[in-house]
Amino acid sequence: MDRFIRFYEEVFDAETKFDLSEPGPGGGAVRHALIDLGGGFALHSFQMPEPTGYEDGSMQMGKRGHIDHLALNVDDEVRLQEVRRRLVKAGASDGTITDFGAIRLVTFRDPDGMEGEVARWTDSKRVLGFDERKREMWPDNNGEHPDIAKVRIGGELCRTAQSGRSTLLVDMDSLLVPDSSR
Q1: CA–CA separation, 72 vs 7, rounded Å?
Q2: C-alpha radius of gyration, the chain, whole number
Q3: What is the DSSP string of 40-72?
Q4: Which of 43, 71, 85, 103 could be a cystine partner for 35, CB 3.0 to 4.6 Å?
Q5: Degrees to nearest 5, angle at CA 12 with 8 and 16
Q6: Residue 102 DSSP class
Q7: What is the DSSP string of 105-141?
Q8: Which among 58, 33, 35, 55 has a CA at the least distance from the CA of 46?
Q9: Cα-based angle 137, 141, 147 (whole degrees, multiple of 5)
Q10: Which pLDDT score, from 0 to 100, does residue 66 have?
């Protein structure tokens, strides 16, 4: 729980409204914290004892299912870039920004493995299809992404980068397109 709280406070300037330990339903203590991310959004995180007291299969707290990912909104490009920098520094993201036209976002994984994205709505009303989306890699001190290697593909000099789900091809203008050959 400490790691979870620290991550959201440091990366998102969140404020922990409370952090309590109380008796759990099956014995032991339940620790829970309410973390205010601003804009009317808060995370209420629970650290449950084992056993939880809900082994009967009921849809009680702690047994309600799984959220695929969080989507958090920022107001402008400056804030998106600042959160992007903090996520990379925390080791929670490779810093790649995906441009969907109407929205630009950077994905992350928090210390407990929960996936999330930080998004900024643009002035565009059009959402780009998969093949139209652009990806901006996070540069290192030399202006290169550290996980990119230069390769020749079809006679053209390109760079490849491994993402969590697929291999991406980067042209020399840093426009990423998905590698459909895999």
Answers
A1: 15
A2: 20
A3: TEEEEEEE--SS-S-TT----TT-S----EEEE
A4: 43
A5: 50
A6: S
A7: EEEEE-TTS-EEEEEEE-S--PBPPGGG-EEEPPP-T
A8: 33
A9: 45
A10: 64
What are all long-range contacts of 146-152, with beta carbons under 8 Å and residues at least 24 apart? 147/94
Write the pLDDT tens digit of every residue in 12-52. 999 999 999 988 776 778 899 999 998 888 999 888 777 65
Map tokens 């903090």 to a residue. Answer: 86
Count Cβ atoms below 10 Å from residue 172 Cβ, excluding itself: 10
Helix (H) or strand (E) holding 31: strand 29-38
Amino acid at site 25: P
Can you list the domains of the chain with their CATH numbers? 2-47 (no CATH), 66-136 (3.10.180.10), 142-182 (no CATH)
Highest mean pLDDT among 48-52, 119-123, 129-133, 167-171: 119-123
